[in-house]
Fold these 3 entries.
Entry 1:
Amino acid sequence: MFNLEQFIADCRAALKADSSHKSVREVVARAVSDPAGVLKGLGEPKRAEVQKLYHAPDLTILNVIWAPMMTVMPHNHLMWAVIGIYSGREDNVFWRRLPDNHRRVEAAGARSLCVGDAEPLGHNIIHSVTNPIPRLTGAIHVYGGDFFAAHRSEWDAETLLEGRFDAERALRRFEEANETYKHFAS
Ligand SMILES: [Fe+2]
């Protein structure tokens, strides 16, 4: 069964051995290879939210639960990340800056993530995330830095122009999604 303290210790040891995402990715892959164990260890997803599981200057571990059909706008992290899916699905669209307008992005690729996938994201990745299924999706997100302190960007969903990442607005999106989900559920 998934043990959070052990998982944190394993991530810390992996980071010490290798400051890139490679060793941490193996730790995440091992965890989500037993999705039932993660569900037991973290609990069944009940509502859309971001749970802080561990937070240090060089490592952040989140339990991200996406509402059904929820989408977050393109954003960067400015640190590597590993996303491990233990329930549901995540579709990631990857974006790149336009060569002639660095404030604007265009879609550059996509990756569909399923239960058991552990996807590494590079330092400079810009991505948006959609939960494409009509139930909650649960994912462990590990970041190679202080996720909450970085001065990041997000891109407007309509204009695709760069703006400053607003953490409170991002968290509010989860609450709004819960409201929407209530309507779906009733
Ligand atoms: Fe992200």
Entry 2:
Amino acid sequence: MFAVTAARIDAEDPLAGLDLGERPDPVAPDGWVTVTVKAAALNHHDVWTLRGVGISADRLPIVVGCDAAGLDPDGNEVIVHSVIGDPDAGGGDETLDPRRSLLSERYDGTFAQLVTVPRRNLIAKPAALSFEEASCLPTAYLTAYKMLFEKSGAQPGATILVQGASGGVASALILLGRAAGYRVWATGRTEAKRDRAVNLGADRAFEPGARLPERVDVVMETVGQATWAHSVRSLRPGGRIVICGATSGDAPPAELTRIFFTQLSVIGSTMGSRDQLARLARFCEQAGVRPVIDRVLPLRDARVGFAAMITGDLFGKVVFVP
Ligand SMILES: NC(=O)c1ccc[n+]([C@@H]2O[C@H](COP(=O)([O-])OP(=O)(O)OC[C@H]3O[C@@H](n4cnc5c(N)ncnc54)[C@H](OP(=O)(O)O)[C@@H]3O)[C@@H](O)[C@H]2O)c1
């Protein structure tokens, strides 16, 4: 089969470690199934893999890609849940299994014609979503869903600030948050990105670091170092930061005094459960939410998509079609 693999780690030049070519077809172990990939979405996780973050060289070469939608062996249209873990080992939540991994961390990922996963990791694809749209759900949209509806504690009508509007998770937060009745504010590094955010449904969009008209109930963080101080400053007393990523760096000054003095909460969030993925798919179907896709590319042009993500020259998701 044709596949895109991480062959080498290069922290400075991640594209240097990307290999495109033929790989042996996978063989599904007992309890696993082989999915024919129809579409696979790119995440920043795939760039981190090439940089050697969250993976060690002894795991390489490994097929990259966390997200896929495709056909199961019986021809059913499915979405692949990327979290390989045991719910029992995580108190009912596979994301809390200490041994859990995402596709492409321990097992080959989705940027290929075929991918094998545990049978329980398949959910039905809603007919209303195309394969390309459905392939965006398992990482970025699932993470946004859990941040909003499990971790934020925010009631509909609350004001939520999304840092870095153009990202896959950030644009999902805008769409899902808007559909759920939050007042969504966003920041973005360029005017074009801020305009897109408003077109997507953000109530207002601001330059990074801007003074807001009023303090917000919740800040959604994926950017990290570049926006952290602004996130802390923008919260009302008692407000929450929900954080799932730190693209620009993970060691900003912690702003501890402000956190305790204004009684803020910092809540970490990672991926979501299979059941949450199934509810997210239904939410998209019911609320008419369709993932925002920057571009669809043949898998053979994966380098172009990776390059756009590395430079930040995109809005929403890049999807590959094998
Ligand atoms: N914990 C989890 O389960 C989980 C799940 C998904 C993602 N993540 C993490 O969340 C982060 C975002 O992932 P993604 O796939 O959404 O990435 P992405 O699509 O590549 O988006 C990148 C984002 O980073 C922002 N950004 C990058 N550098 C910046 C800088 N110097 N200053 C300001 N903003 C900057 C961009 O904001 P602009 O719009 O302003 O350009 C954009 O929002 C990644 O670090 C990823 O690993 C974690």
Entry 3:
Amino acid sequence: MKALRFYAPEDVRLEDVPEPECGPDEIKLRVRNCSTCGTDVKIFHNGHQNLTPPRTIGHEIAGEVVEVGADVNATYGSDWQVGDRAQVIAAVPCGECYECRKGWMAVCQNQTSVGYQYDGGFAEYMIVPRQVLKVDGLNRIPDNVGYDEASAAEPFACAINAQELLGIEPGDTVVVFGAGPIGCMHIRIARGVHECGPVYLVDVNADRLKMSADAVQPDETIDASEVDVVERVMELTGGRGADVVITATAANVTQEQAIAMAARNGRISFFGGLPKTNPTITCDSNVVHYRQLHIHGANGSAPEHNKRALEYISSGQVPVKDLITRHIPLDDVLSAFDIVKNGEAIKVTVEP
Ligand SMILES: [Zn+2]
Ligand SMILES: [Zn+2]
């Protein structure tokens, strides 16, 4: 079968490999959709400390069950059958550490990831590892949800995890930095689930801003390469600032701007990680202190967030279909990375 294998930074090959074999406590999937995200592009160019090469990458996965190991259903108390449609979690918690037992699976200290320690979804077939099945990380796709939509449940789950911490209330003003797919999902969740008030979408790339704004219709877009974004948000909020700010970018300055534009009792999510080589920002601590700001991190998602994402897609509360703007065969997977890198599509999905 064909698979996209990572060997080293800038050395990623689409090659023929043997079809993987399914162990007694594993499930084999025919991958139908594996979507791409900024992390794939980062891995392509820089690798990742947790990724052991050679490795089939791709972590936003939906597929059809083609083989169920003999012990699977007895071991995990599940009822998987050949022909079932399933979505796979990407961040895999251990289920046993202090954090997991507390129910904080997104910050499991032994977290592993599909596409890093286990072969991922840019391939015709993949094995769902026992570590995923053990934490109930293989999710049934509702009948009215397509494989392409289901593959978006993973990034969507990360956004649900972040927003859960923000306590968004009806009517809250929300600013989202980053007009990528995840920024779009943040807007849809804030509105569809939390019934927020006005939403302002910020980016420095005018084309990407327009493309995403056409899809999710923020109340206003702000091109931060043209205007002072803090000043503009203050204007739009009558000088009060934003109740909620989400930085879905890797740009340090957006975190500083988020603090500067937050309203009293404002809640901030540092959703996007910063470059490893430059992870610091300047923070006026007195602003945080006197304005009583709440600054949250966000690290991936827990299995439960993936299930909820599929429910929100199925119920229509948070549509994702229209955010998947490109479908690409596995043979052209490398071009998908360029499209993501150049921001030419909202979400690109690969169909092996
Ligand atoms: Zn991703
Ligand atoms: Zn754990």
